[in-house]
Structures are given as structure tokens and as C-alpha cells.
Amino acid sequence: MKKLLVLLSLLALVTGSVFAQGAAEVTADSYPSGPVSAIVPYSAGGGTDLVMRALADAAKASFPKNIAVENRTGGGGAVGMSYGANAKADGSVVTMITVELVTLPHTGTGAGLSYDQFTPIMMVNSAYSAITVKADSPYNTLNDFINAAKTSTMKVGNSGVGAIWHLAAAGLAKTAGVTFNHIPFDGAAPAITSLLGGHIDAVTVSYAEVASQVNAGNLKVLAVLAPERISATPNIPTAKELGYDVAIGTWRGLGVPKATPQPIVDKLYSIFSTAAKSDSFVNFMNSSNNIIDVMDGPSYQKKLAVDNEMFKALINELGLKQQ
Asked: What is the mean pLDDT of residues 243-255?
């Protein structure tokens, strides 16, 4: 009798395991069967938001119950990315993760955020900082701006304390031997609005984020913090050319909570990598001066680990860690 009970128990365990496995496979195979939220950790209208919306729009046919972009701002990106990291691991929430995922934790402003809370789906694009001022600013070159900073307090807007554009400005200031008054905003869009209003002297966001205002004649770019000139702006020099050896930029990609089943991760990669090749997305990225830079999940995971160590060293060197 005891042997029979043991055998029945084992049979139940095996059957339950097989059933659970089958259920998981069905869920993955039928994904996405419900609505999906795409979290953007910055304000609407900024570069990250616009890239995510264009990608979601290109992928919407693959989400029969809709994919909706949701802005969750605060903490230089920490609020939105933390929300995404702690969401259900069933593919119902996808987060646009940015380089701040590997910078904020080292500044002491990441609120427990860590890159290993995510399973990366893919990297989507990359960009470098552009030192941008108002079109009627008295500063026409980067040297003009740096020289002014030696005698005046220059207010430089960024996308949040410890965020990449803060690091870009801090890196430039350190290299040039000057001090900026760093003004944080919840994303690039409000920082640009403040610059247009004359409340700050410059922003250090990406060129793609200021391109429309530059083309409209409202802003001008003094230099880019890139290893070489940007193809969209071949006439704008790099800081390195002008004697300031600093190159700092960002990347954007997609991630889901760490425990998300691999079949769902693979399905998401298939959906979004296809969307990234679509005419609508490619045309948007080209017209907005955004660089498409696709990397698959495993390669992106390695990049996260490498960049995490690189920014940890940079932040410590710049003394930006908050106590």
C-alpha cells in the first residue's frame, strides 16, 4: 500500500511537471495574447520616447491586443526602469532600458536598480552628446563656451542626476578644467524647453533630440562628444578635435524582467528586430538623425556588463557618487 502511494505521488509530480511545462509552452507559443505595455522611463517628446513610439508603431501588427507606450518618469530614469524590472515576468511589460541602467547605481541614485534585474531583448540605437546653446547665444564655438565658464557659472541642463547627459557635461567640465552648474530634468525634452526659454545656458543631450530645433533655427550645436564626426552633422566638430579628449554617449534597448521565460524573450526579439528593419522605423530614425544600432540579447548582455564596469570607474573618477 505504501509503495502504491509513493508511486502515485511520483506520478502526480511528473504529470504536474509535464502539465506545467506544457502550459508554459502554450503561453509562449500564443504570446502575445493580451495587451502589452512599453515603459519609457523619461518624459514624452524626448529621444527615448520618440524612438520607442516609432518602434512600437512598427511592431503593432504583432500585438493583436495592442501595445501601448507608457511614460514613467523620475529619478533620471530609475523610476521607470525599476517599475519595468519588477513587473510580471510574462511579457506583458517591456521596458526601454537606457545607459542610465549602468550609471545610476554607481551615483547612489539608482534606488536598488541593477542591470542584472533584466533579460535584454535587443539594443536598438546609440547616440552621443551634443553641446547645444540657443541660436542667439554669444557662444559660437565650444572654446567660446569653455572660456566663458572660466569666469561665469554656466547652467547646463541634463536628463537627470547621474544620467548619461549629466555624465557627459561632467566629463567635459573635468577635461576642460572648468565647473558647470548641472541642472537636472526628467528627460531631454524639458531640458530643451528650458534652454529655449533662456533659463539655462546649454544642454548636453543627443543631436537627435535637438535636431528639429536646430533645423528651425532656434538652437545651434557647438560640438559633439563623439569619437568622430556624426554623419548627420559633418560640419560640427568633435570636442576631441578642439582639444578636449572626451567622448560620451548613450544607447537604448529593450528588456524584460529577469525571470521572463526564454521563449517569450525570443518571440519579442523576433517581433522587434523585424520592426527595426521596417521602412517606417528606418525612415523615422533617418529623418530624426537617430542611429540604428541593433544588437541581439546575448551580445547586449555582454555590453551591459562591460559598460557597467566602465561607468563605475568614470563616476568614481569624477567624484559623482552621492553619499
From this structure: 94
Pairing relationship of beta strands 118-128 and 291-296 according to DSSP bridges: antiparallel
CATH 3.40.50.620 is the classification of domain 130-224: no
> Terminal CA-to-CA distance of the chain, rounded, Å?
65
Contact 258, 93 (CB under 8 A): no
List, as one string, the DSSP characters of 260-274. Answer: S-HHHHHHHHHHHHH
128 pLDDT more than 50: yes
Domain range summary for the chain, segments of one domain joined by +: 28-126+251-318, 130-224
101, 273 in Cβ contact below 8 A?
A: no
Across the chain, where does the E strand assignment appear? 36-40, 67-71, 93-98, 118-128, 130-134, 154-158, 180-184, 202-203, 219-224, 249-257, 291-296
All three cell numbers of 90, joined, read: 510574462
CATH 3.40.190.150 fits 28-126+251-318, yes or no: yes
**The whole model's pTM is what?**
0.79
The CA-atom distances, in angstroms, between 190 and each of 106, 167, 276 are: 24, 18, 27
Confirm whether 28-126+251-318 and 130-224 share one CATH topology: yes
Work out the number of other CB atoms within 10 angstroms of the CB of residue 136. 10
Supply the mean pLDDT for the chain: 90
Is residue 7 scored above 60 in pLDDT? no
